[in-house]
Amino acid sequence: MKLLAVLCACALVAAGEEGGEGKAPSTAKLAIGLGYLYRRFLTMTQPEQIKLQDALDVRWRRDMMGSIPIRSAWKATFDGTDRNTFSQIYSIISPEVKGFNGIGMWVQNTVSDVMVTWHHGAALKIHMLTDGGAHKEAVLGNPLDYDGAKFAVVIPKSTFCTVESTSDKTFAFLSYIAIPGWTMEGHNEFSLKDMEAKFPDHSELFKALATPGISKSGHHDRHDDHDDHDDHDDDHHHGHHGHRSHRRR
Question: How far, in Å, CA of 106 to CA of 199, rounded?
């Protein structure tokens, strides 16, 4: 009973932050808050996930589960600026998570291309939007277990992107490699409202990806990721590769 009270209090705080000062959170916002806490609880109930988190120091950093970045000691000139040639992090996406922060957040990086590689666990959907509003969806995972899945996908520089878990039970273990190495420069985050304002034609997609729960198969248009991904982007902060630059637009 005490645990339930604590969870409800936390849900009120989480919902209140979105509602703003002086406004009582709605039932829908409370449901989102409790759903978010439930997903966080799931991360502590899977022994394999805990082992990976401990071994690679993957923990909650800047609104995502990520490790400390590994950066290349070598530098090169990219668009007239000397930068680390690459950086890499490991990340874990918990069951039912949508968006890098678990509640539908999209990101964009105008400096780095990012290769996302699946290593273990559930399949994961990567949603991408070009500046012109073209939507592409790629599935990361084992193609022997998930039809059409690929082990790696490249997110082109300046592409808007987000992630979506395909499982309500199993986490996904992946890594992000950013080229050039990820920095806060050029990293932007976008909420549901931000994305709806920029791309009104995709409003239903944004709402679905900000709603807890597993999307039904076929809910979103699925375009096979053609090997030629020449438009890459997003970085955890690398995926964000750093996952949160705190430059909201």
Answer: 12
